[in-house]
Design goal:
homodimer, alpha/beta, Peroxisomal Thiolase, Chain A, domain 1, two-stranded antiparallel ribbon
Chain lengths: 391, 391
């Protein structure tokens, strides 16, 4: 199979209340990625965009076509993919196949969301359009409720009393805030203590405010290229070693498997298999911590810890930059932010920075990282993983 | 390149006011397609769905994941693509690349829309989310207005007085209604005369009601497979010989090129080149007649007629089933209907029927058709073309 590399990255600051439109945010970061990749807009053969709700947020669907035109990529195929919070990674996976197939050599990938245009109650409703709308959303299964339920299930399944689990979950958020303070792109840059988490307002029992990621505006972009071209254009291409994607039905169809997420286990297995790697080979991970419990579950499903042990691992520092498996050294969705369509592309940028070794100045470089994995989960189980390799 | 074939089709009746949800419509047609392809749900390796506004129509985004689960395609990668009215064809093009790359062997493609859940004023607003929302929609550039403007431009550019052009345009709608009456899947099955068109209510000068396609609910599905597998499963696989896709900026960026649609010319050139064919080789065409003027422009951009001559060609019968280039023998968007996400997949079904030679009973078979092309245009110029070959 023809190898595909990341040769350029662009990353907006993740924030509340962007004054720029999605098209403007995306155009800026896309042009940054092209500059870093040493390619001109006319060299780009296709554009894939992850975006979940441009129609609700700005009255703008099909924004990929206007963005392509805006940055001078005239008339190229421009495709928007939507899989809720996995949209960005799905866009990257489509770009990957067009290059590995030999049909294209250079493809631009973007992700963007401007969720904070919406007032919180409406944003919550719009996000819930990705939950099953006929049977489960009407019963109250918006995402905080679903993940609240997963806390209870996790507690019961693994025999960890809820107060103890909540302490572990708090540790996840605390670590994320600590690293976000070192990440200039992060949305929330203030310290957080375990007490802050446990004293924060209740959202959906047992999830409190600081167990939950924020609504976010932001954009991220990467340029992908075939290996031979990548080597000519940049000094340190970072390769896509494996990709995986899986889906799931509504929550009720997954009841017997919960709190494990089967789609994540299958998706990551696809990626590991394609890369010829195992979880033990991975040096750094960006995973989908939309809620603190989600991080714990994801780390286990990705194969880093035995089931029921990830919360304790976080407490022991195993997930820190110098730990056994550094996780969300960016600040994660919790503190770096979660601009839905951009989240997965932002994760690929972050792992690229780590594998290039460019984060020492920020005090959050994972030393000697050679392999990294990204993980996004949309809706009730649209999971996409990308494994990146330093060479 | 590994050849890819259509081995199964599923097609709902296109209609007003479906009582079924998008998920239900899509599941039914997908299962029909799997049956026709002689494959089981467990054989399907991925699902690509074209859908434009499930979130607005039913409060349901990310519906691909629930549909995959509903039909027993558990945990497969399921990806929704959105490019307005091109969404379905874009889904087919993504499926194509995954098979031609060798990564998958059997992939399901679906398209669905349930637009008539929305009252007409709201549907019109929702459709307009695909127009440029910052500069052009606020000026009134909803689609009837845009295509109304194209009538004036076409009239001026080609020196055809507007009343004469309107007669030609009426001929497009009349032919579509005639063939739709022979198509059991068609939404509108009643005769239409030129006088009916010219006496119908004015929508956006000079477009009258019967120059415009209706809002539609419906679904369509195809199963794609690699050539070697296709030959084992079905008697008459129909091959995808070429695909093309191109984008465009907002209307104002295209002013110098209008009334020609540059994205369409580039997209179809890609498809012709991949197929090693020219417009003269094509035996049957399904093109995007969202408005009667759109059909005339599309037929010219696809290379079937000199610019400024397609309207007269329609009048002379060149586009009839026994004409020089049979166009929209299904009834087209005007009368077969236009369930946005499903439209392109429905076109591929229709060309597949024609190339299999199975429409004689319906009295609308294009005799000896070997090559067919589909054409969809979303928003202000997201164009996708697929060329199909009987062998």
């Amino acid at each position: 199979m023809r190898r595909v590399a990341v040769i350029g990255t662009g990353h907006s600051k993740f924030m509340f209340n962007s004054e720029k439109t999605s098209t403007e945010m995306m155009a800026e970061t896309a042009l940054d990625a092209l500059r870093e990749a040493n390619v001109q807009p006319k060299d780009v053969q296709a554009f894939f965009l992850g975006n979940a709700w441009g129609d609700f947020e700005e009255g703008q669907a099909t924004l990929q076509t206007y963005i392509a035109n805006e940055i001078g990529c005239f008339n190229i195929p421009a495709t928007r993919v939507e899989g809720a919070c996995s949209s960005g990674t799905m866009a990257a996976r489509e770009a990957f196949v067009w290059i590995t197939s030999g049909l294209y050599d250079i493809v631009l990938v973007g992700g963007v969301e401007r969720a904070t245009t919406l007032p919180v109650p409406l944003a919550t409703r719009v996000f819930a359009t990705c939950a099953d709308s006929r049977y489960e959303y009407p019963l109250g299964f918006i995402y905080p409720a679903s993940f609240g339920m997963l806390c209870h299930l996790y507690s019961k399944t693994h025999g960890i009393p809820l107060p103890r689990l909540k302490e572990m979950m708090a540790g996840v958020s605390v670590q994320s805030h600590e690293y976000a303070m070192k990440n200039p792109y992060a949305q929330i840059q203030k310290p957080l203590t375990k007490e802050d988490v446990l004293n924060s307002p209740m959202i959906a029992t047992p999830l409190q405010l600081h167990d939950c990621c924020p609504f976010t505006d932001g954009a991220a972009a990467i340029v992908l290229a075939a290996e031979d071209i990548a080597k000519k254009l940049v000094e340190k291409p970072v390769y896509i070693a494996g990709v995986g994607q899986a889906s799931a039905g509504r929550i009720s169809s997954q009841a017997d498997y919960y709190p494990r997420i089967r789609a994540r286990e299958l998706s990551s297995q696809q990626a590991y298999k394609m890369a010829g790697l195992t979880p033990q080979d991975i040096d750094v991970c960006e995973l989908h911590d939309c809620f603190s419990i989600a991080a714990i579950i994801a780390a286990e499903c990705l194969g880093f810890f035995e089931f029921g042990t990830a919360g304790a691992a976080w407490e022991k520092g195993a997930t820190r930059a110098d730990g056994k498996i550094p996780i969300n050294i960016s600040g994660g969705l919790k503190a770096k932010g979660h601009p839905v369509g951009a989240t997965g592309v932002g994760q690929i940028c972050e792992i690229t920075y780590q594998l290039r070794g460019q984060l020492a100045e920020q005090g959050r470089q994972v030393e000697g990282a050679k392999y990294g994995i990204t993980d996004t989960m949309g809706a009730d189980g649209v999971v996409t993983n990308v494994i990146l390799a330093a060479q």
